[in-house]
Amino acid sequence: MAFCPRAGKTGVAQIDAKNFPPLAAGSMKKILLATVLFFSGAAWADDYVQPTLPNIVKALVRYGAIDPAEDPLLDDYARAAECEIVQYFYRNDFKFEEVRDAIRKNMDDAIATFPQAFYISGPVYLDRYDFRAGIFRLSDRAPIRNTNTFFFAKADVNLCPNLTNNRTDQPEGFAALPKAYRAVTDRPITIEGLYMSPEQSKLLFELMTLQGNTDKKIYVKFLMTLMHADKISLYARSPIPSDYLMEVKLDAVEFYQDAKLTRLISKIVP
Length: 270
What we know:
Number of strands: 9
Largest sheet: 5 strands, mixed, barrel
Helix content: 25-40%
Order of helices and strands: EEHHHHHEEEEHEEE
Structural class: alpha+beta
Radius of gyration: 23 Å
Oligomer: single chain
Number of helices: 6
Strand order of the largest sheet: 3-4-6-8-7
Distance between the termini: 20 Å
């Protein structure tokens, strides 16, 4: 996960009390039972996808940034999203021309299902609990401070291997699409920590202790919707940007106990 800072808005994550019962005195069994209750909240972001290059190019088609009528753009799209087909027909110019028409038709048929929302995730760390403010603050090891830019993906030549240029015998890269993709939000955000009561923070601390999580590592998930993507033109006066920015709206920020993002701790909506 990579995100970059700019001046912006401050937020504090709040816990849904329904998913976070207070710690009751008793045995370890009660603590483990509380784990199930505490993390019973399910993420609501089923329509958010990871920003892999195949997902990104499909989104760019949906938002009109990639014109499939342009063969170079279509070919790069196919390398990213339909690699196996490209690998199979790449050496036969006549067959590949037929493949282009089939890919265009498939794009037309499936465009309504192409992604329009993404998520990225990564670890963050809790600091000491602030009893005065009632916040389990985030550590400076991976702060979320004045953040408005997120790295999405690179157009790596190895994404679709075994394609070589007939003249140079070198790997065939992406000729028409940008080389890297980032998302930028309209409003930067700072998250100071997770707002919770001393009893709730004690439960979370004991759960992490039981799991040997001495670093107090948790995981953050940024959910965002694509709002605008500039059209990629082969005939513009300026060259194709190596770093392509996509305008997104940050919908929510979720915090999880586990790397698989199944045990929700809290969620904020900026």
